[in-house]
């Protein structure tokens, strides 16, 4: 399989505190890979460093054969690596349409942008109903759909999803995970960070378990879902 993203010996520090310690992971083309772990394990820090929001202290990040560690975020987005951030971070005073259009701000392929816009609305019919509504007036679930839709407007080859199910009602959690599978069916590779380990392991091909900034386990998602240590720590077993 072709490695789309390779992270090697990544270290990220906040001041004197090392939040991510020598993390190495690979995402192959066409996969859904999940990074699971408890709160404060370093999952979001890892993702934010991959997408260029944080600068690594050490290690390398290679995307499509090119090193991107330390590059500016917008240059990384231009290469086809887009993130739907933790906590959604939509623009509340702008309409749904404007939020989605902003997702494509680095693109100028008008016809393809229009096609992608339509694809996002097919994926999330609720957004079509709310298209001119101010994003801040929507429910948490709708805002999460918008955050994912906006990331998709960047034409990602690799989509980074940071805690997409956070704070959502169980019925919406199921819907978000069904959508993640549909996104992969469109040929988009996904790196998913999720506290809801059982739902994440359900849709992922492979998984990494992060604990206190270190990868403790990795393997096929279906194997980890059956693993006793993982079950105890993350699946309430």
Explain the layout of strands and helices.
Layout: E1 3-14, E2 17-28, E3 32-36, H1 43-50, E4 58-63, E5 66-67, H2 73-78, E6 81-84, H3 96-103, H4 110-123, H5 125-129, H6 140-152, E7 158-162, H7 170-185, E8 189-194, H8 197-203, E9 206-211, E10 214-220, H9 221-226, H10 228-234
Parallel strand pairs: 3-8, 3-9, 6-7, 7-8
Antiparallel strand pairs: 1-2, 1-4, 4-5, 9-10
Q: How would you portray this structure in words?
A:
Residues 5-237 form the ABC transporter domain. It holds the Pfam family ABC_tran. Belongs to the ABC transporter superfamily. One of its GO terms (molecular function) is branched-chain amino acid transmembrane transporter activity. Keywords: Amino-acid transport, ATP-binding, Nucleotide-binding, Transport. The protein is α/β, with parallel strands linked by helices and 237 residues long. The chain has a domain at 1-72 and 192-237: Rossmann fold. The chain is 38% helix and 27% strand. The chain contains ten helices and ten strands. It has helices at residues 43-50, 73-78, 96-103, 110-123, 125-129, 140-152, 170-185, 197-203, 221-226, 228-234, and strands spanning 3-14, 17-28, 32-36, 58-63, 66-67, 81-84, 158-162, 189-194, 206-211, 214-220. The strands form two sheets. It has a six-stranded mixed beta sheet with strand order 6-7-8-3-9-10, with helices on both faces. It has a four-stranded antiparallel beta sheet with strand order 2-1-4-5, covered by helices on one side. It starts with a strand and ends with a helix.
């Amino acid at each position: 399989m072709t490695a789309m993203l390779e992270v090697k010996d990544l270290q990220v520090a906040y001041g004197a505190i090392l939040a991510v310690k020598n993390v190495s992971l690979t995402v192959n083309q066409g996969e859904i890979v999940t990074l699971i772990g408890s709160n404060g394990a370093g999952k979001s820090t890892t993702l934010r460093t991959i997408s260029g929001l944080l600068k690594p202290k050490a290690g390398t990040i290679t995307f499509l054969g090119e090193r991107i560690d330390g590059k500016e975020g917008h240059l990384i987005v231009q290469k086809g690596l887009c993130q739907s951030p933790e906590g959604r971070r939509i623009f509340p005073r702008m309409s749904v349409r404007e939020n989605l259009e902003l997702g494509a701000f680095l693109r100028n392929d008008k016809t393809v942008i229009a096609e992608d816009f339509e694809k996002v609305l097919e994926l999330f019919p609720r957004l079509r109903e709310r298209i001119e509504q101010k994003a801040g007036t929507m429910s948490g679930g709708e805002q999460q759909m918008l955050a994912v839709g906006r990331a998709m407007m960047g034409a990602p080859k690799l989509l980074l999803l940071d805690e997409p199910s956070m704070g959502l009602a169980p019925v919406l959690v199921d819907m978000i995970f069904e959508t993640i599978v549909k996104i992969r069916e469109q040929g988009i590779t996904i790196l998913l960070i999720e506290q809801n380990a059982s739902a994440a392991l359900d849709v992922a091909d492979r998984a990494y378990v992060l604990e206190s900034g270190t990868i403790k386990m990795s393997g096929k998602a279906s194997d980890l879902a059956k693993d006793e240590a993982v079950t105890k720590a993350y699946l309430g077993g």
